[in-house]
Amino acid sequence: EGKATPYEISSIISKAERHTIDSKAYKERGLTIAEFCRSADLDPTSLAIALRVSDKKSFRRFIYHFRLEYAKKVLL
């Protein structure tokens, strides 16, 4: 019925996390979900739904998480 399985959700988020780290997308100012998904070869709607279902957060909070982790590394 169009519902994603937990495996599919996990796979989408893992792919997004890998792309965020590999491309250092968290450093890009004004990054939109459409731009991110275009470069990561993901569907924006699928990513937004996967983030909401699994982590209860938005794309913006997803990117902020990586920005905060990067800032911690720089400060330490």
Write the layout of secondary structure elements.
Elements: H1 6-23, H2 33-40, H3 44-55, H4 59-75
Helix pairs in contact: 1-2, 1-3
Structural features:
76 residues; mainly alpha; 4 helices
Number of helices: 4
- The assigned structural class equals mainly alpha
Taking the sheet with the most strands, its summary is: none
Low-confidence stretches: none
Shape: globular
- Report the sheet-strand fraction: under 5%
Q: Compute the CA-based radius of gyration.
A: 13 Å
Order of helices and strands: HHHH
Mean pLDDT: 92
Compute the separation of the termini in Å.
48 Å
How would you portray this structure in words?
With 76 residues, the chain is mostly helical. The protein is built from four helices and no strands. The chain has helices at 6-23, 33-40, 44-55, 59-75. α1 (6-23) packs across α2. The longest helix is centred in the first third of the chain and has 18 residues, at 6-23. The chain is globular and about 40 Å long. The mean pLDDT is 92.
Give a nutshell description of this structure.
The chain is mainly alpha-helical and 76 residues long.
